[in-house]
């Protein structure tokens, strides 16, 4: 009796967690844009998996540009973790959620620069006020930021 009740409570709890977040459609994909809770890159990756999504990747410049514009249009421009990283092989940034190389022309000028030798995770939104776009920058993975998840 008790174990089955516990199972139901657990299922309801997980269901509530999934339902607690709202995905938005941008282009033809669905994204969750965390509005409040800042996490390090690893925590952000985990949080996205818990809602059956992945820390965001951009398959093309066009996809990045659509999300970039959405952040401006909805007045939620900020710095967000993406799944970009070169933790696997320094200097080679990939989307960790898909394994594919990061598309060209979405880096902030002079980035990625591995500043101080400890920047291996990629945020978007760095220097956004200067460049008027949420371009990528490599940053210390333990820095706490908002993050964007992308539904599978
Ligand atoms: Ca950097």
UniProtKB/TrEMBL annotation:
Residue ranges of coiled coil: none
Stretch forming the signal peptide: 1-20
Keywords, in A-Z order: Signal
Residue span, C-type lectin domain: 26-150
InterPro entries: C-type_lectin-like, C-type_lectin-like/link_sf, C-type_lectin/snaclec_domain, CTDL_fold
Keyword Signal in record: yes
Protein name: C-type lectin domain-containing protein
The organism of origin for this protein: Drosophila ananassae (Fruit fly)
